[in-house]
Design brief:
Oligomer: single chain
Shape: globular
Distance between the termini: 28 Å
Radius of gyration: 16 Å
Number of helices: 3
């Protein structure tokens, strides 16, 4: 038996260390937290998606008293982006969250469902998506969802499996 290990690669940086485009995306995610509907958890999450054509689409978490039908900010933004710009790849997504004390100290990360939706977007357009996760202590930046979900389900056959 062989034991293997996954490595997660990410950068940790400050807001002013990001390029202007990424900095604006993080700020849009921070602003999107204000449009969250989260009366049950009181945990407001915002997401901002940067499209390849330069458009930015935002979303926020939307809760429901029947918890399983709640939607995360990432999926709200990604699905809105796919609807409004169906043939345009997503190049980056930024996340931010607020609790009762304001913005979270530690960066917020996407849940498993959101990671899978991000993986599907990458697979659909055959390109990685940069993920920016904001916290007051710093921003975590990953190049591609593989760093968040290394064994993502992929229903689109690879060229190797078509041989």
């Amino acid at each position: 038996m062989k034991s293997l290990q996954f490595a997660v690669h990410y950068d940790e940086c400050a807001l002013d260390e990001l390029c202007p485009e990424e900095r604006q995306l993080v700020m849009a995610a921070m602003e999107a937290t204000e449009r969250s509907y989260s009366p049950y958890s009181r945990f407001r999450v915002g997401a901002a998606v940067l499209m390849d054509d330069g458009h930015t689409v935002t979303g926020s978490n939307q809760e429901n008293s029947a918890y399983p039908v709640t939607l995360c900010a990432e999926r709200v933004a990604l699905f809105a982006a796919a609807h409004g710009h169906p043939d345009v790849p997503v190049t980056a997504i930024a996340l931010a969250a607020q609790d009762s004390g304001g913005f979270t100290v530690r960066p917020v990360t996407p849940c498993g469902s959101c990671r899978q939706v991000l993986a599907e977007m990458e697979s659909r357009f055959h390109r990685p998506i940069t993920v920016l996760m904001y916290g007051t202590s710093g921003i975590w930046r990953t190049a591609g969802v593989v760093n968040l979900l290394p064994l993502a389900f992929d229903s689109i056959p690879s060229q190797e499996s078509q041989v």
